[in-house]
Amino acid sequence: MFTLRDVTFGYIEARPVLKDISLHVEEGQFILLQGPSGSGKSTLLHLLNGLAVPQRGEVLFKDRPLASYDATWLRRRVVYLQQTPVMLDASVRENLLLPFRFRSARGERLPTEDLLQDYLHTFLLGEISLEANARELSVGQKQRLALIRALLLAPEALLLDEPTASLDRESREIVEARAEALNAEQGVTVIMISHTDYVPRLVKPRVLVLEHGTLREVAA
Ligand SMILES: Nc1ncnc2c1ncn2[C@@H]1O[C@H](COP(=O)(O)OP(=O)(O)OP(=O)(O)O)[C@@H](O)[C@H]1O
Fold first, then answer.
1. Would you call 158 exposed, middle or buried from its count of C-beta atoms within 10 A (0-12, 13-18, 19+)?
2. Domain that residue 214 falls in
3. What's the number of domains the chain is made of?
4. For ligand 1, is residue 35 a contact (CB within 6 Å)?
5. For the domain that residue 119 is a member of, what is the CATH number?
């Protein structure tokens, strides 16, 4: 699904965060990405959906260079869930349906109210009205809403940035369990930045550690 070939990237070119990284991710794999703070884990996820472009080397999605895909299309297929979810100053419903408002989604069927309610219940957000302002929710609730928004797009790959330290344990566990189920039941490729103490229950992950700009695989 993804191939990185000798990828080097730095926000300042003279100081690369990632150095000559090569990686092959098969469709349906569940990958945990670990490493110290600032080692470049988020940056690596950004490279996989085109939010960052390598200075050297190349990134392929399904054997084609990332740049050959339409960026909006790609980000619906390869969904990146960032650490700090961003919500519009609008209702929960509007925030969930946001990706369907873009021109690229014309012709796609809008998710029904029932489906939205089902998702809210699944993620223990059943108490929250679709009319509520999404900006007024807690970080943990926003994180779950962002995941629902991502899942409504039925992505092929899910890139999950580590939930923030401020995220409550319950929210984190729900997000993790759902990511595992999506992988186990629907074959969605998952790459998740995680702490070493997270051990998936439903899936056997590949564990990659990023340190000093290089990537190594360790036993799960
Ligand atoms: N937009 C940016 N501009 C300049 N430097 C950046 C930018 N984003 C990240 N960096 C730097 O790149 C390096 C890698 O950052 P990155 O966020 O990828 O690390 P990380 O492993 O995800 O960290 P954390 O675990 O703390 O989230 C860090 O030194 C960071 O300061």
1. buried
2. 2-218
3. 1
4. yes
5. 3.40.50.300
The string of DSSP codes covering 74-141 is HHHHEEEE-SS----SSBHHHHHHGGGGSGGGTTSPPPPHHHHHHHHHHTT-TTS-TTSBGGGS-HHH
The answer to whether 34 touches 219, Cβ cutoff 8 Å, is: no
Burial class (CB in 10 A: 0-12, 13-18, 19+), 126: exposed
pLDDT tens profile 178-211: 899 999 999 999 999 988 888 999 999 999 999 9
Q: What is the ipTM for the molecules in this complex?
A: 0.96
State the angle between helix axes of 169-186 and 139-151 in degrees (0 to 180), rounded to the nearest 10: 10
H-helix or E-strand containing 182? Answer: helix 169-186
Q: Is any ligand 1 atom within 6 A of the Cβ of residue 107?
A: no
pTM exceeds 0.90, yes or no: yes
What ligand 1 atom has the least distance to the C-alpha of 44? Answer: 18
